[in-house]
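Researcher: Sequence recovery benchmark, item below. Answer with residues only.
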């Protein structure tokens, strides 16, 4: 029998990212309010913005989960009950928690609001999973440090809803429980304010030789000893689906709309492909091959190289990226469609010029190449160039029926852009 296709859960670090995630096929989004959610700098939603976000998502049949997953201190409890009641009133579909104190307040004040356990709670075994389900949690986001076998065995043992991170940046610590940022910069990762010092370049210093930095070198560019590659389990979705994952989560509330849309559409396309398979294909999920163009496309979304992390075995040096901390981006965003009617009104995200060849990112994995053959500003005056933030009408060399509001255009970066 074919397994149930899981929910695709996308990051929504801002209203625009939410709209993009919805456009490219997310079933659910997660976002943070101004307080209580990790990712303090993710452009979090104030109360009004949160209500607007829920309305928009629900109009498009997309669920909204709100992070309330800081490691809370006593002072954080002040006003928490009111905030949770507000979230329930706003119609959010679940809150994401990790702190037992917050869970207790939620159980008292909003007992009907479903609770999802954050990956910050580090569930790595069936007993812990059962413990949290017994506390009234509806869903567990399992720790990222689990193999496929462990995920399967936890699901088989407890049966409840499980959510698995499938894509995005990784920590070198257990799912974010890390003090590196706090020690080095005063910004606390456990309060959602990580400065990502694991991506910094480090050197060796002998205490009697202040100022003399001995390079720790992988190559001439240095060594980034804490810098993990990014997670990508696109290729392994058949096994995760067969293991009973209920939700597949993409990391990245701090990332751009280009990243969010680019990743969401490929996971959507992959899940839709899996849904189309005949039941017999599921007799050997490990043998189901993901269409190669999906794997090619995911490499174009911008990454710090890719790893499957703990999926088959404990990660080693091969899962670290020692040569650079840079986020490799072969393509760059150029514009987002804001309106379609008399013409196609776009908002430029990079310099866009008449004559440029750009690619439209359709829903699904396809792209369509086209050339910009005319541009005009909102008064109708012809322009040859649009700068980031400008809104211009564009015309193309070929007519396409696939353009939609909130769809994005990208352009391949030149070799000098990529190596800069
Ligand atoms: S410093 Fe790096 S490992 Fe630590 S919490 Fe931040 S991103 Fe994660």
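Model:
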């Amino acid at each position: 029998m074919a397994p149930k296709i899981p929910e695709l859960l996308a990051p929504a670090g801002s209203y625009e990212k939410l709209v993009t995630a919805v456009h490219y096929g997310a079933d659910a989004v997660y976002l943070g309010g101004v307080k209580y959610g990790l990712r303090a700098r993710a452009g979090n939603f104030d109360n009004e913005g949160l209500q607007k976000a829920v309305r928009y998502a629900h109009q498009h049949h997309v669920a909204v989960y709100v992070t309330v997953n800081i490691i809370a201190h006593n002072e954080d409890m002040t006003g928490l009950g009111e905030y949770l009641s507000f979230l329930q009133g706003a119609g959010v579909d679940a809150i994401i928690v990790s702190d037992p104190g917050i869970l207790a307040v939620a159980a008292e004040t909003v007992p009907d609001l479903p609770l999802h356990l954050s990956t910050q709670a580090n569930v790595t075994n069936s007993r812990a999973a059962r413990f949290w389900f017994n506390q009234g949690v509806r869903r567990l986001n399992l720790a990222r440090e689990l193999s496929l076998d462990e995920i399967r065995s936890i699901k088989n043992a407890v049966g409840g809803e499980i959510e698995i991170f499938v894509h995005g940046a990784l920590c070198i610590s257990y799912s974010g429980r890390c003090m590196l940022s706090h020690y080095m910069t005063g910004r606390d990762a456990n309060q959602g304010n990580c400065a990502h010092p694991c991506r910094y370049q480090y050197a060796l210093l002998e205490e009697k030789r202040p100022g003399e930095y001995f390079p720790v070198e992988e190559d001439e560019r240095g060594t980034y000893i804490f810098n993990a590659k990014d997670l990508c389990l696109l290729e392994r979705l058949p096994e995760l689906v067969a293991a009973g994952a209920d939700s597949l989560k993409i990391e990245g509330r701090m990332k751009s709309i280009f990243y969010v849309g680019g990743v969401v559409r490929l996971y959507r396309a992959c899940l839709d492909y899996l849904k189309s398979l005949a039941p017999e294909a599921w007799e050997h999920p490990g043998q189901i091959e993901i269409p190669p163009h999906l794997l090619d496309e995911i490499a174009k979304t911008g990454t710090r190289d890719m790893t499957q992390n703990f999926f088959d075995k404990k990660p080693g040096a091969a899962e670290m990226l020692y040569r650079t901390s840079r986020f490799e981006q072969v393509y760059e965003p150029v514009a987002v469609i804001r309106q379609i009617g008399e013409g196609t009104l776009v908002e430029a995200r990079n310099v866009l010029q008449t004559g440029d060849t750009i690619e439209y990112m359709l829903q699904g994995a396809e792209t369509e190449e086209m050339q910009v053959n005319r541009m005009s500003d909102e008064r109708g005056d012809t322009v040859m160039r649009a700068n980031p933030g400008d809104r211009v009408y564009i015309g193309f060399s070929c007519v396409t029926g696939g353009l939609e509001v909130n769809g994005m255009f990208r352009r391949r970066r030149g070799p000098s852009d990529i190596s800069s």
